[in-house]
Amino acid sequence: MQTRVERDSLGERHVPADAYYGAQTHRAVENFPISGLRPKPAYIEATACIKKAAATVNRDLGLLEAKKANAIIQAADEIVGGKLREWFVVDVYQAGAGTSHNMNANEVIANRAIEILGGSKGDYSIIHPNDHVNMAQSTNDVCPTAIRVAALLMTQGLLESLDRLQQSFTKKAKEFDPIIKSGRTHLQDAVPVRLGQEFGAYAENIRKHRSAIERAVDSCRELGIGGTATGTGLNSHPRYREMMVKELSNEIKIEFRMADDYFEAMQSLRPFVELSGAVRNLAQDLIRIANDVRLMSSGPKTGLSEIALPAVQPGSSIMPGKINPVMAEMLDMVCFQVIGCDATILLAAQAGQLELNVMMPVVAFNLLHAIEILTNAIGVFVKYCVSGITANSKRCEEYAEGSISIVTVLNPHIGYTKAAEVAKEALRSGKSIKEIVLEKGYLTREKLDKIFDLRAMTEPGIH
């Protein structure tokens, strides 16, 4: 392999000649051969946007020569557009705070800017990774800002996927509204409900989670960029903070705001815990809903078989004709992973000390990973499962009519004690509730027929 010699404050390193990264990135690759995982594309994009904004602001403040600033801006734009991504090579488990990621970005942008100006990679007399690309910045304010920007960008996709899920559940709620089934509590027979009511509840639950995530992600709009190393703003122009927030808002088309307290913004990872918590809460309800779908579709002969899921793949390598609820199973597993990501974020957030929480790299990966996989999982769950669910109305009706718990409707008419006796006798004898009530003379047939209106039992009232 052809190499070039680069130098940093620790000495020389032989870097691949064609690499856009430099000595500090090369050290990080040597130091952290941990997982093979690389930064999420949104995190790379967010970091490049910050570098572009800083070059623009420092140029406009007269601190960075226009020729150099414009080359940095062009290089950052190329990264945002999808180029040079292969040169972001530092493992997600790296030095605390994300210095290795920040320097990886600084070196890639610097070397591309050097090329743009006609120089050769590694000639940092033209564009320097620290002095020019990282001007007025520190890893300590760049990385938390990049996480915020990336989270906002990625959450937009999650909110859109939740909109589709809610709409799909709402459509099924209307379609299944005429279908009456036995309710179940404690996995035991309960009073009748409509299948559409169950799906309507799923839709409303998703709507509420969407609102909670939208509220949580708003805290990521508050940026501590310009705090530099500890929140003091050392080595940045007095107008830099305000101009950076305005520049990033214009560039990314998201309305950001300055931090209320730049020391707090650097010390605390509160916004990421808040957002991760909202995503985790969604995950735990999605597990519940996915498991409901699995249970209601169980069978087809020996389970509930109240609904049928689309057949998307053969379910067994040995049992011909078997179809499994694979999309619901996939969603469960993704949600388990999301909850694990949240636990990691919570532990990392409480590990901060004094002026800085250095655990940001693991927070960046887990937060963005959770949002990404949940967005994708919800998308295919809607497409390949929810939108194609059909109801077994005959089976649902049989369960509703056969449920012992419909005796509950008799409570206002014959009392709880007598109704319980009727239920026990029905179970013991195999006779219907109606038969026993008539035999005992508790009610007339005419009144009994009015009371035992299954549809009416699914609405408020004393029947």
Report the C-alpha radius of gyration, rounded: 30 Å
Tally the helices: 18
Number of strands: 8
User: What percent of residues are in strands?
Assistant: 5-15%
* Largest sheet composition: 2 strands, antiparallel
Question: How are the strands ordered across the major sheet?
Answer: 1-2
End-to-end distance = 85 Å
Q: How many distinct folded domains? A: 3
Order of helices and strands: EEHHHHHHEEHEHEHHEHHEHHHHHH
Helix-strand layout with pairing:
Elements: E1 3-8, E2 11-16, H1 23-31, H2 41-60, H3 66-80, H4 99-116, H5 129-133, H6 139-175, E3 180-185, E4 188-194, H7 195-217, E5 222-223, H8 240-252, E6 257-258, H9 262-267, H10 270-296, E7 307-308, H11 326-349, H12 360-384, E8 390-391, H13 393-402, H14 411-414, H15 416-429, H16 433-440, H17 445-451, H18 454-457
Parallel strand pairs: 5-6
Antiparallel strand pairs: 1-2, 3-4, 7-8
Structure description:
The model has no long low-confidence stretch (mean pLDDT 97). The protein has 463 residues and is mainly alpha-helical. It has helices spanning 23-31, 41-60, 66-80, 99-116, 129-133, 139-175, 195-217, 240-252, 262-267, 270-296, 326-349, 360-384, 393-402, 411-414, 416-429, 433-440, 445-451, 454-457, and strands at residues 3-8, 11-16, 180-185, 188-194, 222-223, 257-258, 307-308, 390-391. Helix 8 links the parallel strand 5 (222-223) and strand 6. It has a two-stranded antiparallel sheet with strand order 1-2. It has three domains: 3-135, Fumarase C, Chain B, domain 1; 141-214 and 222-394, Fumarase C, Chain A, domain 2 (Up-down Bundle); 403-457, Fumarase/aspartase (C-terminal domain) (Ribonucleotide Reductase Protein R1, domain 1, Orthogonal Bundle). The protein is built from 18 helices and eight strands.
